[in-house]
């Protein structure tokens, strides 16, 4: 018997427990699981725009052209490789996440918004068909902490294709 069979309750030594509640029997009041709050978005304020412009000011120094995904990937990979403290981690994350957002705006029709979800409020890009906003800062920060390389073309390329298609 395989692991998944045991997890599904098909272990040879057990019989199914018909008295266990099914998904239909559980309601929001007694499941112990709280419903996810809705994701809210709003347009950018002048202050939000200024934060983006401040990050964009670093593009030239790092060889970033937002319409060129490879330039963003190369800048990120160089920063991971160097990681000598010359540029603060938060600054790298802000620079690269803004460039990724700008790439999705230019290449796939996303738009910058401020997104609020159960985890907080941050700048994000919303797909053209008003799907779930992508908080680019979180996407970059998680990979930066793991010193992950080579992920930008695949991940951001997929988001751009999904946004267009």
Helix content: 40-55%
The total beta strand count reads 3
Q: Count the helices. How many?
A: 6
Task: Evaluate the radius of gyration.
Answer: 21 Å
Give me the secondary-structure topology.
Blueprint: H1 3-7, E1 40-42, H2 46-56, H3 69-82, H4 89-108, E2 111-117, E3 120-126, H5 136-145, H6 152-164
Helix pairs in contact: 3-4, 3-6, 4-5, 4-6
What attributes does this structure have?
disordered N terminus, 6 helices, 165 residues, mainly alpha, three-stranded antiparallel beta sheet, 3 strands, globular
What this model shows, in words?
The chain has helices at 3-7, 46-56, 69-82, 89-108, 136-145, 152-164; strands spanning 40-42, 111-117, 120-126. The protein has 165 residues and is mainly alpha-helical. The protein has a 3-stranded antiparallel sheet with strand order 1-2-3. β2 (111-117) and β3 form a beta hairpin. α3 packs antiparallel against α4 (89-108), α3 runs antiparallel to α6 (152-164) and α4 (89-108) runs parallel beside α6 (152-164). The chain is globular. The chain starts with a helix and ends with a helix. Mean pLDDT is 83; it is low at 3-8, 10-17 and 20-28.
């Amino acid at each position: 018997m395989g692991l998944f069979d045991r997890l599904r309750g098909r272990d040879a030594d057990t019989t199914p427990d018909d008295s266990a509640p099914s998904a239909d029997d559980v309601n929001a009041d007694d499941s112990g699981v709280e419903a996810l709050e809705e994701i809210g978005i709003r347009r950018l304020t002048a202050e939000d725009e200024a934060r983006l412009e401040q990050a964009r000011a670093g593009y030239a120094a790092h060889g970033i052209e937002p319409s060129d995904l490879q330039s963003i990937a190369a800048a990120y990979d160089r920063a991971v490789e160097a990681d000598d403290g010359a540029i603060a981690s938060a600054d790298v994350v802000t620079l690269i996440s803004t460039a990724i957002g700008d790439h999705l705006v230019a290449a796939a029709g996303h738009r910058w918004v401020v997104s609020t979800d159960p985890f907080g409020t941050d700048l994000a890009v919303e797909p053209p068909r008003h799907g779930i906003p992508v908080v680019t800062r979180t996407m970059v920060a998680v990979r930066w902490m793991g010193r992950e390389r080579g992920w930008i073309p695949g991940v951001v390329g997929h988001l751009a294709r999904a946004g267009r298609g």
